[in-house]
What does this fold into?
Amino acid sequence: MYRITDETVIDGDLATVWSVVTDVDNWRAWDPHEEDARIDGEFAAGATGWSKPHGAPGATWTITDVVEGRSWASQCALPGGRLVGENTFEALGDGRIRCVKSVHVYGPLVPLFRLYFGRRIRRDMSRTFAALEREAARRAATAA
It folds into this structure.
């Protein structure tokens, strides 16, 4: 198993941040990691989606768990294994939110995945957190 985890604290309203991260069809508009993304149906456990990171192949994934306003997880198949993503958001008070993202890779492709995608995913996590903060602020200002 190979695991990549990053966390940061951003400024924002948890409800607004949650609305941004669950708006899959618009990930590509704000997330520098995503070239394209879509979801089939509501953002709920059992829903399937597809996303294509910049510089990597697209993949179909399934949402495996959702705790409304707090966390969500997904899984996609890899040859002989799987990739599991976990995303957690915790209100800290004073308009601050702790964001944690973890990617777990299982199976025989772990060494290749680590070599070709590990560094890029780790770098993109911090870029995505910064972009999430900006997009949540933009949406909050638009709603005001």
Q: What stands out?
A: The mean pLDDT is 96.
